[in-house]
Amino acid sequence: MKVILLIILLLIVLCWLIAIPQTLRGKKDNKYVVTYLWRGKRKKLTYMSFWQAYWYRDWLNMVDWIVIILSL
Questions:
Q1: Contact criterion met (CB below 8 Å) for 45 and 33
Q2: Which of 2, 7, 33, 53 is an S-S bond match for 26, by CB 3.0 to 4.6 Å?
């Protein structure tokens, strides 16, 4: 049980660390652009704050990991 919790915590930390450069890469002028694919279409969201874009990107990364794990 401890091993499973440790793996989950490591995946969450990995998502947090990966989200930082992904968010900074989307910086345009004073805005942060988050792009993602949804049902085959590219979607764009624009945020004025780094933290809003960061947490949204982090949420997208966690959803990606959940989909990958459930498809195994």
A1: yes
A2: 33
Number of structural domains (the chain) is 1
Q: Is the pLDDT of residue 23 over 90?
A: yes
Our measurement of the distance from residue 64's CA atom to the centroid of its chain's CA atoms, rounded to an integer in Å, reads 8
In angstroms, the CA 42 to CA 5 distance is 34
* Domain extent at residue 60: 2-70
| Residue type for position 39 | R
Sheet with strand 27-28: strands edge to edge: 27-28, 31-38, 41-47
φ, ψ of residue 44 in degrees (nearest 5)? -130, 135
In 3D space, the residue among 36, 34, 13 whose CA is nearest the CA of residue 24 turns out to be 34
Q: Which residue has the tokens 């930082």?
A: 20
User: What pTM was computed for the model?
Assistant: 0.81
